[in-house]
Design brief:
The protein has 415 residues and is an all-alpha fold. Helices cover 79% and strands 0% of the residues. The chain has 17 helices and no strands. The chain has helices at 7-33, 39-45, 51-82, 85-105, 109-121, 124-136, 142-167, 174-193, 213-221, 226-239, 241-253, 258-286, 289-309, 313-325, 328-338, 346-377, 385-411. α3 (51-82) packs antiparallel against α16 (346-377) and α7 packs antiparallel against α12. The longest helix has 32 residues, at 51-82. The two termini are 27 Å apart. 55% of the residues are buried.
């Protein structure tokens, strides 16, 4: 319920908040993904002399972004539970705008890394958005609303890469300039429209000890089976191979430029939207959530193998779209985890899960580009090798989720 309103007014405001958060997720996703198609060109601008070098440098830039996210996500989650969701969201939008602005102004790789490190602080946007959804939605509706937010983000991810490919015609920094302006617009809108959703009764006292990320992990893990968090980490790690490798892999393997990379990523995002809005509600009527998680991770494993072993641009596009659609399993998993946590701990949960998924995002930009560069520099024709490594990771996530589903099925009726 939105703070300070009657029940009827609160329901109306809750719909407004959800609508705005969906718009925010859409616009934020556009700003985040429109830079993907031009990363190889940006790395060349920063001094990369080969595809392998560009992949390594690009991976390090992503590593800096995610590293800051991991370091401070639990702290942001704690702050969201103590001072409220709105201040965290406002601060995150401001920091993201500053980050994009610095990228526009620099031609130095070290400054670029510093700018993206600041941008990692903006990842608190996701924590605030997820916590707000948890505030205003009953437990049984959270998976559906998390799906709406994911679909809105998917819509932005559809528009962003295609638009970024078009903006790339005007230079590798043009998408960052647009992203900076978009963040300023979002910041202004949030200041004007967005209310606080966390009531004073549900706020925790500020304890410095709670800003230790391990406090959040240990207390939250006690509320849900540890295997679910393991599936979350492994699932995010496996799927993270796509965004960190796609521009470099397709550029080398198929000769794609920013335009085609943008179109292909837009296709994947469109598939994700269709899955979130059409497949997810239909599937949940007939298949329990735990089983859906296991099925989507298993199918993702097989598709990663296809992507890595079959060097056909048509097969690559089909596999990419289906892998993106399979991302609904992670949305369902978040709903399962969130339903076991009280309203007073939702910010801590989002901070902990953001850091856990961020850990996967921290490993991916170093590991997968390193495998790719190894193959390229040694003239190994098997450049899809990192996708097979990703398949092994998602396969492990699938195995753990099947084990969890089997245990729960034996102990209680299927949902």
């Amino acid at each position: 319920m939105v703070v300070g309103l009657t029940h009827r007014s609160s329901e109306h405001m809750s719909r407004r908040v959800v609508s705005f958060l969906c718009v925010l997720a859409l616009a934020n996703s556009v700003a985040a993904t429109l830079i993907l198609p031009i990363l190889p060109e940006l790395m060349v601008l920063m001094g990369a002399e080969s595809t392998a070098a560009a992949a390594r440098m690009g991976g390090f830039v992503v590593f800096a972004f995610v590293g800051m996210q991991i370091a401070l996500a639990p702290a942001f989650g704690e702050l969201a539970d103590t001072i409220g969701r709105r201040p965290i969201l406002i601060a995150a939008l401001l920091l993201t705008a500053i980050s994009h602005g610095f990228v526009v102004l620099t031609d130095n790789f070290a400054t670029l890394v510093a700018a993206r490190t600041i941008g990692g602080l903006g990842a608190a946007t996701g924590i605030a958005v997820s916590s707000m959804i948890a505030d205003i939605a009953p437990a049984q509706d959270r998976a559906r609303l998390f799906g709406f937010i994911a679909a809105a983000g998917g819509a932005g991810a559809t528009i962003g890469p295609a638009f970024g490919g078009l903006l790339g015609v005007f230079g590798a920094k043009a998408p960052f300039m647009f992203a900076a302006l978009a963040q300023v617009v979002l910041l202004t809108a949030a200041l004007t429209i967005l209310p606080e959703t966390l009531s004073s009764d549900n706020r925790r006292k500020v304890l410095i000890s709670n800003f230790n990320p391990f406090v959040g992990f240990t207390s939250i893990v006690q509320t849900s089976p540890p295997s679910l968090f393991l599936v979350l980490v492994l699932g995010h790690l496996g799927f993270a191979a796509i965004p960190v490798l796609w521009p470099y892999f397709t550029g080398l393997q198929y000769g794609w430029g920013p335009g085609m990379v943008g179109v292909s990523l837009a296709l994947a995002a469109a598939a994700s939207i269709l899955a979130q809005t059409l497949l997810l509600p239909l599937a949940r009527r007939h298949v329990c959530d735990r089983l859906m998680v296991a099925l989507t991770l298993t199918s993702g494993t097989g598709l990663m193998v296809v992507l890595g072993a079959v060097y056909s641009s048509s097969f690559a596009l089909i596999a990419l779209a289906l892998i993106a659609a399979g991302g609904i399993g992670l949305s369902i998993l978040m709903g399962l985890i969130s339903s076991g946590v009280s309203s007073t701990d939702q910010g801590r949960l989002m901070g902990a899960t953001s850091a856990l998924s961020g850990t996967a995002g921290l490993i991916a930009p170093l590991a997968f580009p390193a495998v790719f560069a190894f193959a390229v520099e040694r003239n190994i024709s098997f450049t899809g090798m990192p996708f097979l490594v990703a398949a092994m990771v998602t396969g492990c996530a699938g195995a753990v989720s099947w084990s969890y589903w089997a245990r729960k099925t034996r102990s209680e009726p299927i949902d």
